[in-house]
Amino acid sequence: MVFDHLLTGLNKINFKRRLLSILLVLIIFYLDLHLPAKVFAYFIIGLALLALIFDLIRRKNGGAFLKRVINMYPSETYENDKFLSDITVFLFSTTILFFVFPKTIFLISIIIYILADNCGHILGVLIHKGKLFWNKDKTILGAIGNVLGVLISLTIISQALGVKLDIIPIAIISLAVIIIDSINAPDNILMPWVISIILLFSIN
Description:
By secondary structure, the protein is mainly alpha-helical. The protein has one domain. It contains 9 helices and 2 strands; from the N terminus they run ααααααββααα. A two-stranded antiparallel ribbon has the order 1-2. Helix 6 (103-126) packs antiparallel against helix 7 (140-160) and helix 7 crosses helix 8. It is globular.
């Protein structure tokens, strides 16, 4: 019974999409650490524009080769009715985030977002138990996954950036992540921005 439940959960998770999104953010994280700010700005703007071009091609039913390239990053069914894909929205939002906030805050926010969101999704789908009272589609285990993702992110951040947060900012960020992830909001926009604002008042 438990095995069947886990198998059903595994079939619901788009692992390729999840892994590619994590890889993309890790590449952004690495390049921002090592490239001059001006060069990275060109890179992140170019990446967002490339995603937009791919969306336009997808809408116009571009050639077979381009369609294969675009489909390397699998879309979700609900994206078929949207003009912009989730990845395009995320990249444009991330580009603005880069110009608004200091480098350290930008890096921390995108790492926390991508790991907290994916850990929460995977754990919540695999073990769909303990539904949240304000959203029956979300679970307590998904919220635990969110917190686990935050803690993993902070471990990476402490090693890569030498930044350590106090327990209160960690608790506030974890609570914000759980709330945003559980209210069916556009978390690829909202979560990095809310985390960045919290960090702005938490990092000296």
